Amino acid sequence: MEKANIKSYDTSPKIRYAWVDYAKFFSIFLVVSYHIPHRADGYVGELLSLLRMPAFFMIAGFLFNTNKFHSLSYFLKHRSIQLLIPYISFFTFFYISWLLFGRDWIGGNELDIPLWKPLMEFAYGTPVTIIAPYWFICCLFSMQIIYYLLIRQFPKPIVIIIVSICPLLHCIPWTSYLPWNLSAALLYIPFYAFSNMNKDFIQSLTSKHILGAIIAFCITLVCIRYGNYNNMIFKNIQIVICGLLVMPIYTIFIKAFSHLKIDKAVSFIGKNTIIILALQNYIIGCFKLYFKSIIEYGGYATNIILTLLTIIICCLPIKLINSYVPFLVGRGPYFEKKLNKTKT
Description:
Blueprint: H1 18-34, H2 42-63, H3 72-100, H4 117-124, H5 128-131, H6 135-153, H7 156-169, H8 182-197, H9 199-204, H10 210-226, H11 232-257, H12 263-271, H13 273-290, H14 292-297, H15 300-324, H16 333-343
Helix pairs in contact: 1-2, 1-11, 1-12, 1-13, 2-8, 2-11, 3-6, 3-16, 6-8, 7-8, 8-11, 10-11, 13-15
Protein backbone atom coordinates (compact mmCIF):
# COMPACT_ATOMS: atom_id res chain seq x y z
CA MET A 1 0.00 0.00 0.00
CA GLU A 2 1.43 3.37 -1.03
CA LYS A 3 1.81 6.26 1.30
CA ALA A 4 -0.52 9.20 0.73
CA ASN A 5 0.39 11.68 -1.99
CA ILE A 6 4.07 10.84 -1.99
CA LYS A 7 5.95 11.61 -5.17
CA SER A 8 9.40 12.80 -6.03
CA TYR A 9 10.41 16.26 -4.93
CA ASP A 10 8.28 18.79 -6.84
CA THR A 11 10.20 21.76 -8.28
CA SER A 12 7.43 22.97 -10.60
CA PRO A 13 6.34 26.61 -10.27
CA LYS A 14 3.47 27.36 -7.93
CA ILE A 15 0.04 27.47 -9.59
CA ARG A 16 -2.08 30.49 -8.69
CA TYR A 17 -5.85 30.12 -8.60
CA ALA A 18 -7.75 33.40 -8.94
CA TRP A 19 -10.75 32.17 -6.97
CA VAL A 20 -8.52 31.31 -4.00
CA ASP A 21 -7.69 35.01 -3.57
CA TYR A 22 -11.42 35.72 -3.39
CA ALA A 23 -11.83 32.91 -0.86
CA LYS A 24 -9.08 34.44 1.27
CA PHE A 25 -10.71 37.86 0.98
CA PHE A 26 -14.11 36.58 2.15
CA SER A 27 -12.50 34.55 4.92
CA ILE A 28 -10.59 37.50 6.36
CA PHE A 29 -13.75 39.58 6.01
CA LEU A 30 -15.63 37.05 8.16
CA VAL A 31 -12.82 36.97 10.73
CA VAL A 32 -12.67 40.77 11.08
CA SER A 33 -16.48 41.01 11.17
CA TYR A 34 -16.58 38.48 14.01
CA HIS A 35 -14.45 40.77 16.21
CA ILE A 36 -16.69 43.80 15.67
CA PRO A 37 -19.93 44.30 17.70
CA HIS A 38 -23.31 43.48 16.14
CA ARG A 39 -22.12 40.44 14.26
CA ALA A 40 -24.71 38.17 12.69
CA ASP A 41 -26.61 35.74 14.90
CA GLY A 42 -29.23 33.02 14.46
CA TYR A 43 -29.08 30.85 11.35
CA VAL A 44 -26.82 33.33 9.57
CA GLY A 45 -24.44 33.51 12.50
CA GLU A 46 -24.23 29.72 12.74
CA LEU A 47 -23.54 29.40 9.03
CA LEU A 48 -20.84 32.06 9.14
CA SER A 49 -19.22 30.29 12.08
CA LEU A 50 -19.01 27.15 9.90
CA LEU A 51 -17.18 29.17 7.27
CA ARG A 52 -15.01 31.54 9.26
CA MET A 53 -12.13 29.39 10.48
CA PRO A 54 -12.87 26.12 8.58
CA ALA A 55 -12.64 28.03 5.29
CA PHE A 56 -9.21 29.37 6.22
CA PHE A 57 -7.95 25.88 7.03
CA MET A 58 -9.45 24.45 3.84
CA ILE A 59 -7.74 27.12 1.76
CA ALA A 60 -4.43 26.34 3.47
CA GLY A 61 -4.94 22.62 2.83
CA PHE A 62 -5.83 23.20 -0.81
CA LEU A 63 -2.62 25.18 -1.35
CA PHE A 64 -0.38 22.79 0.57
CA ASN A 65 1.87 20.67 -1.65
CA THR A 66 3.58 17.87 0.23
CA ASN A 67 5.94 17.11 -2.63
CA LYS A 68 7.40 20.59 -2.41
CA PHE A 69 9.27 19.58 0.75
CA HIS A 70 12.01 17.01 0.23
CA SER A 71 12.76 16.65 3.94
CA LEU A 72 11.29 17.37 7.35
CA SER A 73 14.04 19.91 8.07
CA TYR A 74 13.27 21.88 4.90
CA PHE A 75 9.54 21.69 5.68
CA LEU A 76 10.06 23.07 9.20
CA LYS A 77 12.35 25.80 7.92
CA HIS A 78 9.89 26.83 5.21
CA ARG A 79 6.88 26.89 7.53
CA SER A 80 8.84 28.68 10.25
CA ILE A 81 9.75 31.48 7.85
CA GLN A 82 6.21 31.77 6.49
CA LEU A 83 4.41 31.57 9.85
CA LEU A 84 6.72 32.04 12.81
CA ILE A 85 8.62 35.08 11.51
CA PRO A 86 5.38 37.15 11.31
CA TYR A 87 4.34 35.71 14.69
CA ILE A 88 7.59 36.83 16.32
CA SER A 89 7.72 40.18 14.49
CA PHE A 90 4.21 41.40 15.30
CA PHE A 91 4.26 40.09 18.85
CA THR A 92 7.54 41.90 19.52
CA PHE A 93 6.24 45.17 18.04
CA PHE A 94 2.95 45.13 19.93
CA TYR A 95 4.50 43.87 23.17
CA ILE A 96 6.98 46.76 23.20
CA SER A 97 4.11 49.14 22.38
CA TRP A 98 2.08 47.59 25.20
CA LEU A 99 4.93 48.32 27.63
CA LEU A 100 5.68 51.83 26.39
CA PHE A 101 2.09 53.02 26.40
CA GLY A 102 1.46 52.01 29.99
CA ARG A 103 -0.41 48.80 29.18
CA ASP A 104 -3.69 50.65 28.61
CA TRP A 105 -3.25 51.21 24.88
CA ILE A 106 -6.41 51.53 22.80
CA GLY A 107 -8.59 51.99 25.87
CA GLY A 108 -7.63 48.78 27.59
CA ASN A 109 -7.08 48.38 31.31
CA GLU A 110 -4.33 45.82 31.71
CA LEU A 111 -2.20 47.32 34.45
CA ASP A 112 -2.80 44.29 36.66
CA ILE A 113 -1.35 41.91 34.10
CA PRO A 114 2.24 40.89 35.04
CA LEU A 115 4.88 41.85 32.49
CA TRP A 116 5.92 38.23 32.06
CA LYS A 117 2.42 36.88 31.31
CA PRO A 118 2.33 37.93 27.62
CA LEU A 119 5.77 36.37 27.17
CA MET A 120 4.51 33.08 28.60
CA GLU A 121 1.47 33.26 26.34
CA PHE A 122 3.74 33.89 23.37
CA ALA A 123 5.93 30.89 24.17
CA TYR A 124 2.84 28.71 24.69
CA GLY A 125 1.33 29.77 21.37
CA THR A 126 -1.69 31.52 22.90
CA PRO A 127 -0.85 35.27 22.74
CA VAL A 128 -4.28 36.43 23.93
CA THR A 129 -3.08 39.59 25.66
CA ILE A 130 -0.98 41.07 22.85
CA ILE A 131 -2.07 39.59 19.54
CA ALA A 132 -4.99 37.24 20.14
CA PRO A 133 -5.90 36.48 16.46
CA TYR A 134 -2.51 34.85 15.99
CA TRP A 135 -3.78 31.76 17.78
CA PHE A 136 -4.62 30.78 14.21
CA ILE A 137 -0.97 31.02 13.13
CA CYS A 138 0.15 28.74 15.96
CA CYS A 139 -2.71 26.33 15.30
CA LEU A 140 -1.93 26.19 11.58
CA PHE A 141 1.76 25.58 12.28
CA SER A 142 0.90 22.67 14.60
CA MET A 143 -1.67 21.30 12.16
CA GLN A 144 0.72 21.36 9.21
CA ILE A 145 3.38 19.50 11.15
CA ILE A 146 0.85 16.82 12.19
CA TYR A 147 -0.47 16.43 8.66
CA TYR A 148 2.97 16.38 7.06
CA LEU A 149 4.16 13.64 9.39
CA LEU A 150 0.99 11.62 8.83
CA ILE A 151 1.11 11.63 5.04
CA ARG A 152 4.83 10.89 5.07
CA GLN A 153 4.43 7.89 7.34
CA PHE A 154 1.06 6.30 6.60
CA PRO A 155 -1.08 5.23 3.62
CA LYS A 156 -3.92 7.56 2.66
CA PRO A 157 -6.73 5.38 4.18
CA ILE A 158 -4.91 5.34 7.53
CA VAL A 159 -4.42 9.10 7.39
CA ILE A 160 -8.15 9.57 6.75
CA ILE A 161 -9.01 7.39 9.75
CA ILE A 162 -6.60 9.23 12.06
CA VAL A 163 -7.76 12.65 10.88
CA SER A 164 -11.40 11.61 11.37
CA ILE A 165 -10.68 10.60 14.96
CA CYS A 166 -8.90 13.86 15.81
CA PRO A 167 -12.09 15.92 16.52
CA LEU A 168 -13.07 13.26 19.06
CA LEU A 169 -9.68 13.62 20.76
CA HIS A 170 -10.44 17.35 21.00
CA CYS A 171 -13.25 16.41 23.41
CA ILE A 172 -10.79 15.08 25.99
CA PRO A 173 -10.62 17.83 28.67
CA TRP A 174 -6.85 17.88 29.13
CA THR A 175 -6.21 18.55 25.44
CA SER A 176 -7.29 22.17 26.01
CA TYR A 177 -4.04 22.63 27.95
CA LEU A 178 -1.82 21.51 25.08
CA PRO A 179 0.57 24.19 23.76
CA TRP A 180 0.45 25.84 20.36
CA ASN A 181 -3.29 25.38 20.00
CA LEU A 182 -2.91 21.66 19.37
CA SER A 183 -6.43 21.24 20.72
CA ALA A 184 -7.88 23.47 17.99
CA ALA A 185 -5.66 21.74 15.44
CA LEU A 186 -7.26 18.41 16.37
CA LEU A 187 -10.72 19.87 15.76
CA TYR A 188 -10.00 21.59 12.45
CA ILE A 189 -7.53 19.22 10.81
CA PRO A 190 -10.29 17.34 8.90
CA PHE A 191 -10.94 20.52 6.88
CA TYR A 192 -7.26 20.85 6.04
CA ALA A 193 -6.89 17.17 5.12
CA PHE A 194 -10.12 16.98 3.08
CA SER A 195 -9.13 20.00 1.01
CA ASN A 196 -5.59 18.73 0.45
CA MET A 197 -6.71 15.24 -0.57
CA ASN A 198 -9.55 16.44 -2.82
CA LYS A 199 -7.99 19.26 -4.80
CA ASP A 200 -9.36 18.00 -8.10
CA PHE A 201 -12.90 17.83 -6.71
CA ILE A 202 -12.72 21.34 -5.27
CA GLN A 203 -11.18 22.75 -8.43
CA SER A 204 -13.89 21.11 -10.55
CA LEU A 205 -16.82 22.61 -8.60
CA THR A 206 -18.87 24.93 -10.82
CA SER A 207 -22.46 26.10 -11.20
CA LYS A 208 -23.19 22.73 -12.81
CA HIS A 209 -22.96 21.21 -9.34
CA ILE A 210 -25.32 23.74 -7.74
CA LEU A 211 -28.15 21.25 -7.13
CA GLY A 212 -25.97 18.92 -5.08
CA ALA A 213 -24.48 21.90 -3.26
CA ILE A 214 -27.95 23.21 -2.38
CA ILE A 215 -28.99 19.80 -1.05
CA ALA A 216 -25.86 19.69 1.13
CA PHE A 217 -26.61 23.24 2.27
CA CYS A 218 -30.19 22.28 3.26
CA ILE A 219 -28.87 19.33 5.26
CA THR A 220 -26.60 21.79 7.05
CA LEU A 221 -29.56 24.01 7.93
CA VAL A 222 -31.42 21.03 9.38
CA CYS A 223 -28.36 20.03 11.45
CA ILE A 224 -28.04 23.59 12.78
CA ARG A 225 -31.73 23.63 13.74
CA TYR A 226 -31.78 20.26 15.50
CA GLY A 227 -28.14 19.84 16.49
CA ASN A 228 -27.08 18.89 19.99
CA TYR A 229 -24.83 21.65 21.31
CA ASN A 230 -24.73 20.35 24.89
CA ASN A 231 -22.74 17.23 24.10
CA MET A 232 -19.16 18.07 23.11
CA ILE A 233 -18.72 14.94 20.99
CA PHE A 234 -21.87 15.57 18.94
CA LYS A 235 -21.02 19.26 18.69
CA ASN A 236 -17.57 18.56 17.23
CA ILE A 237 -18.95 15.97 14.81
CA GLN A 238 -21.57 18.48 13.72
CA ILE A 239 -18.96 21.20 13.20
CA VAL A 240 -16.91 18.95 10.93
CA ILE A 241 -19.80 17.44 8.96
CA CYS A 242 -21.73 20.69 8.54
CA GLY A 243 -18.55 22.59 7.75
CA LEU A 244 -17.73 20.16 4.95
CA LEU A 245 -21.32 20.15 3.66
CA VAL A 246 -21.51 23.92 3.37
CA MET A 247 -18.16 24.23 1.57
CA PRO A 248 -19.38 23.23 -1.95
CA ILE A 249 -21.95 26.02 -2.20
CA TYR A 250 -19.48 28.46 -0.65
CA THR A 251 -16.82 27.46 -3.19
CA ILE A 252 -19.26 27.77 -6.10
CA PHE A 253 -20.31 31.21 -4.83
CA ILE A 254 -16.68 32.31 -4.52
CA LYS A 255 -15.85 31.11 -8.03
CA ALA A 256 -18.88 32.94 -9.45
CA PHE A 257 -17.88 36.09 -7.62
CA SER A 258 -14.31 35.80 -8.90
CA HIS A 259 -15.53 36.70 -12.40
CA LEU A 260 -15.84 40.31 -11.27
CA LYS A 261 -13.00 42.50 -12.49
CA ILE A 262 -11.55 43.37 -9.11
CA ASP A 263 -8.78 40.78 -9.13
CA LYS A 264 -6.00 43.21 -8.27
CA ALA A 265 -7.59 44.57 -5.09
CA VAL A 266 -8.83 41.16 -3.94
CA SER A 267 -5.46 39.53 -4.67
CA PHE A 268 -3.69 42.25 -2.67
CA ILE A 269 -5.89 41.55 0.36
CA GLY A 270 -5.72 37.79 -0.12
CA LYS A 271 -1.93 37.75 -0.17
CA ASN A 272 -1.68 39.77 3.04
CA THR A 273 -4.24 38.23 5.38
CA ILE A 274 -1.48 37.41 7.86
CA ILE A 275 -0.83 41.16 8.31
CA ILE A 276 -4.53 41.97 8.61
CA LEU A 277 -4.87 39.30 11.30
CA ALA A 278 -2.18 41.07 13.30
CA LEU A 279 -3.53 44.63 12.91
CA GLN A 280 -7.29 44.14 13.04
CA ASN A 281 -7.83 44.12 16.81
CA TYR A 282 -5.94 47.37 17.33
CA ILE A 283 -7.85 49.13 14.57
CA ILE A 284 -11.13 47.79 15.95
CA GLY A 285 -10.00 48.95 19.40
CA CYS A 286 -9.65 52.48 18.02
CA PHE A 287 -13.17 52.29 16.61
CA LYS A 288 -14.54 51.18 19.98
CA LEU A 289 -12.68 53.99 21.75
CA TYR A 290 -13.37 56.92 19.42
CA PHE A 291 -16.67 55.89 17.79
CA LYS A 292 -18.32 54.33 20.81
CA SER A 293 -21.78 55.81 20.25
CA ILE A 294 -21.85 54.76 16.58
CA ILE A 295 -20.90 51.19 17.44
CA GLU A 296 -23.22 51.03 20.45
CA TYR A 297 -26.34 52.03 18.52
CA GLY A 298 -25.42 50.56 15.17
CA GLY A 299 -26.54 47.27 13.70
CA TYR A 300 -25.20 44.67 11.34
CA ALA A 301 -24.82 47.32 8.62
CA THR A 302 -22.40 49.12 10.93
CA ASN A 303 -20.53 45.88 11.40
CA ILE A 304 -20.10 45.46 7.63
CA ILE A 305 -19.00 49.07 7.13
CA LEU A 306 -16.44 48.89 9.95
CA THR A 307 -15.19 45.54 8.68
CA LEU A 308 -14.51 46.97 5.23
CA LEU A 309 -13.00 50.09 6.79
CA THR A 310 -10.67 47.97 8.93
CA ILE A 311 -9.44 46.08 5.87
CA ILE A 312 -8.98 49.32 3.92
CA ILE A 313 -6.99 50.91 6.76
CA CYS A 314 -4.73 47.85 6.80
CA CYS A 315 -3.75 48.51 3.18
CA LEU A 316 -1.31 51.32 4.02
CA PRO A 317 0.76 49.37 6.58
CA ILE A 318 0.66 46.38 4.22
CA LYS A 319 2.18 48.49 1.45
CA LEU A 320 4.83 49.90 3.79
CA ILE A 321 5.75 46.48 5.20
CA ASN A 322 5.99 44.82 1.78
CA SER A 323 7.98 47.73 0.32
CA TYR A 324 10.43 48.51 3.12
CA VAL A 325 10.49 45.74 5.74
CA PRO A 326 9.25 42.54 4.05
CA PHE A 327 11.46 40.47 6.35
CA LEU A 328 8.93 41.15 9.15
CA VAL A 329 6.55 38.73 7.43
CA GLY A 330 9.15 36.26 6.15
CA ARG A 331 9.42 37.78 2.68
CA GLY A 332 12.15 39.41 0.65
CA PRO A 333 15.46 38.33 -0.89
CA TYR A 334 17.06 37.29 2.40
CA PHE A 335 14.50 34.59 3.17
CA GLU A 336 14.21 33.57 -0.47
CA LYS A 337 17.94 32.98 -0.49
CA LYS A 338 17.74 30.97 2.73
CA LEU A 339 15.04 28.71 1.31
CA ASN A 340 16.74 28.28 -2.06
CA LYS A 341 19.98 27.39 -0.31
CA THR A 342 18.21 24.69 1.68
CA LYS A 343 16.61 23.26 -1.48
CA THR A 344 20.01 22.58 -2.96
